[in-house]
Design brief:
The chain is built from five helices and no strands.
Length: 164
């Protein structure tokens, strides 16, 4: 029940943020047209592309894990039985994924707090004054990936085929 909710949450986040790619492409075309056709430069549009990219990257990593979109060494994995695949996934998630998520979360908190303390903004004059919000995505990414890792562990334990 809880794992279904986590799966649905990460699926919804992924589907919504997939549209960020369309927006990013349109913004990039706009930046190029403004600069090279009209001779107008706009830092806010350029930085908004970076913000959209950072947001989509950080928040869709768990979605990629759910859908089996991460890189695997398929030379061996593809030849394994379901039980062996689940054992590899279980071991990898328990020994690598979850500890790394905890480490990223734990070490990012002081970094994010420092950014919020000064309401960190763009290093460039006229840039977006919300770097502190972007940095907040780091612990959120760790939480989402950790939760999805728990879902994948539950799948492996239940003997459900991994998403490949």
């Amino acid at each position: 029940m809880v794992f279904d909710w986590i799966d649905r949450m990460n699926e919804a986040i992924g589907r919504i943020l997939a549209w960020f790619m369309v927006v990013m492409a349109l913004l990039m075309v706009s930046v190029v047209l403004l600069r090279y056709v009209f001779g107008i430069g706009t830092l806010i549009l350029q930085e908004s592309i970076l913000y959209l990219h950072g947001t989509s990257f950080m928040l869709t990593i768990a979605w990629a894990l759910k859908r089996g979109g991460h890189v695997r060494v398929d030379v061996f994995y593809g030849r394994m039985t379901l039980r062996q695949r689940n054992l590899v996934d279980l071991t990898g998630h328990l020994l690598l994924l979850l500890p790394v998520c905890v480490l990223v979360f734990w070490t990012s908190i002081p970094y994010v707090q420092a950014s919020w303390r000064i309401l960190e903004g763009s290093a460039d004059v006229g840039g977006i004054p919300g770097v502190f919000i972007l940095k907040t995505l780091i612990p959120i990414f760790a939480i989402l990936l950790f939760l999805q890792g728990l879902c994948e562990i539950a799948r492996a334990v239940k003997g459900i085929p991994p998403n490949v």
